[in-house]
Design a protein that fits this description.
The structure is a single chain. Helix content is about 35%, strand content about 40%. The protein has five helices and ten strands. Strands 1, 7, 8, 9 and 10 form a five-stranded antiparallel beta sheet that branches. It has a five-stranded antiparallel beta sheet with strand order 2-3-6-4-5, sandwiched between helices. Strand 8 and strand 9 form a beta hairpin. The mean pLDDT is about 95. InterPro entries: EFG_III/V, Impact, Impact_N, Impact_N_sf, Impact_YigZ-like, Ribosomal_Su5_D2-typ_SF, UPF0029_Impact_C, UPF0029_Impact_CS. Belongs to the IMPACT family.
């Protein structure tokens, strides 16, 4: 998968009140339908007194598994809107549950669709997304007088700095695509007059915050 996006935390909870009904959004990363079902069962057990526990999930490298349930809400007003939000955000391998505690005010079909879709969308936004990429872990080492210049260049070129380690020198840990490493090394050597050291690490998955 060229662009694998998922939620930043492994699980997340967010809630809001709409016309006196309490809507609680729970989302988690999962790798299988069994894990998704376990998560749904856990949330349902936790909120067993709730009026509804509606769910939707997408699993697989091409989202081969897509399921939803309205859990007693009128057909098409809850699970489908949630699934459509997951699809729109292009998040992979996640399960979402929206728990509703009815507050006494009926929302109508349109209101329910907006409530479940909106709670899911706002919950995902609050959780944050990451893009998982295959990159080479590169350690770029400079002395202190060049650290601000290097930091500015990396930021300006939109390279994500995973970590900065300070000892006798400054070490920037940066994920870089293998095909770009030579160009980066050449550019930085020119920029910093050769006062730089680049150590090439292993290829691995990195999770870059999605802006």
């Amino acid at each position: 998968m060229n662009n694998y996006v998922t939620i930043a935390p492994h699980d997340y909870t967010w809630e809001q009140v709409i016309k006196k009904s309490r809507f609680i959004f729970n989302i988690a990363r999962v790798n299988s339908e069994e894990q998704a079902r376990d998560f749904i069962n856990r949330i349902t057990k936790t909120h067993h007194k709730a009026t509804h526990n509606v769910f939707a999930y997408m699993i697989g490298d091409r989202d081969q598994i897509q399921r939803y349930s309205d859990n007693g809400e009128p057909s098409g007003t809850a699970g489908v809107p949630m699934l459509e939000v997951l699809q729109k955000n292009q998040v992979h391998d996640v399960v979402a549950v929206v728990t509703r505690y009815f507050g006494g005010v009926k929302l109508g079909a349109g209101g329910l669709i907006r409530a479940y879709a909106g709670t899911t969308a706002d919950g995902i936004k609050a959780a944050g997304l990451v893009t998982r990429l295959t990159r080479i872990k590169v350690t770029i080492t400079v002395d202190y007088k060049h650290s601000d210049t290097l930091n500015y260049w990396l930021t300006n070129q939109q390279y994500h700095i995973l970590d900065v380690i300070y000892d006798t020198n400054v070490h920037f840990i940066v994920p870089i695509a293998e095909e770009n490493i030579t160009a980066v090394e050449t550019t930085l050597n020119d920029l910093l007059a050769g006062q730089i050291n680049i150590a090439i690490g292993d290829e691995t998955f990195f999770e870059i915050p999605t802006k």
